[in-house]
UniProtKB/TrEMBL annotation:
Keyword annotations of the record: RNA-binding
TM spans (from-to): none
Location of the CRM domain: 1-97
Protein name per UniProt: RNA-binding protein
PANTHER family cross-referenced by the UniProt entry: RNA-BINDING PROTEIN YHBY
InterPro entries: RNA-binding_CRM, RNA-binding_domain, RNA-binding_YhbY, YhbY-like_sf
Length: 103
């Protein structure tokens, strides 16, 4: 699902009160980290990821890594925090994506 501007604004508003669920540290990015992220998004559809100060990667590198290796979309980047969205593979967890598709 390619997100339009209104849909991204809706998702940003929904994620405003979230705390980062995942973080990127000095270990950097790996396939294992990405698979855990993908699994968490199957349950929640919308999460925040923070990039720690001791990390060797930039926000642009994290964004590129996530979007090129999965179907996860980066909704917003603020400083060292990314808001990520993915339509769940499990039908019963698709509450947020159903709301987004109606916008």
């Amino acid at each position: 699902m390619n997100l339009r501007g209104k849909q991204k604004r809706f998702l940003r508003a929904q994620a405003h009160h979230f705390k980062p669920l995942f973080s990127v540290g000095k270990e950097g990015l790996s396939e294992n980290w990405l698979s855990q992220l993908d699994g968490a998004l199957d349950k929640r559809e919308l999460i925040k990821v923070s990039i720690l100060q001791n990390s060797d990667v930039t926000t642009d590198e994290v964004k590129e890594f996530i979007e090129s290796n999965t179907n996860i979309q980066v909704v917003q980047v603020i400083g060292r925090v990314l808001v990520l969205f993915k339509v769940s593979n499990i039908e019963s967890y698709r509450n947020l994506s159903n709301q987004v598709s109606d916008i």
